[in-house]
Amino acid sequence: MVMPDRTLPNKHRKVSEPTGCEEFIGEIKVLSNQIADVKTMLEGNEKRIRDLERAGDKTTPLVVRQISDLEDKTDDHDEQLKQLRELLSAQTLNVNKLTNSFDSMQRIWKWALGIFTAVIIMVLIALVSGQAELIFK
């Protein structure tokens, strides 16, 4: 009876065929290399994250200050808009008053012009009819 290759003593084994233990060791070495690559990648990622956090620590106060400045500007602009709105309301009232005054002034001028026109027409009629001679002599 012939024994399988695994049970043969070392001197009878074929050199080209790896044993189960050697295959396992080879797989462990490959896994070890892969783990080392993953570890290196994780260390690189950790370094990048630390760098980003440091950069964030430097820029966060700047961003907060800029946001605060923008809020202050917004408040100032809001106050200016309120003042302009009030000024615009006051100007609108003044324009309405001026328009009403202008309408009243137009009515007065129309009446005055009508009366003046009537007087001139009466003087012309008086001159033409001869009744105005008494007045101008």
Layout of strands and helices, then pairs:
Blueprint: H1 20-129, H2 133-136
- State the separation between the terminal residues, measured CA to CA: 174 Å
- Average predicted confidence as pLDDT: 83
Structural class: mainly alpha
Helix content: over 70%
Essential attributes:
single chain; 137 residues; mainly alpha; 2 helices; 0% strand; rod-shaped; disordered N terminus
Could you please describe the fold and organization of this structure?
The chain has 137 residues and is mostly helical. The protein has one domain. The protein is built from 2 helices and no strands. The protein has helices at residues 20-129, 133-136. The termini are far apart. The model is unreliable at 1-15 (pLDDT under 50).
In short:
This protein is an all-alpha fold and 137 residues long.
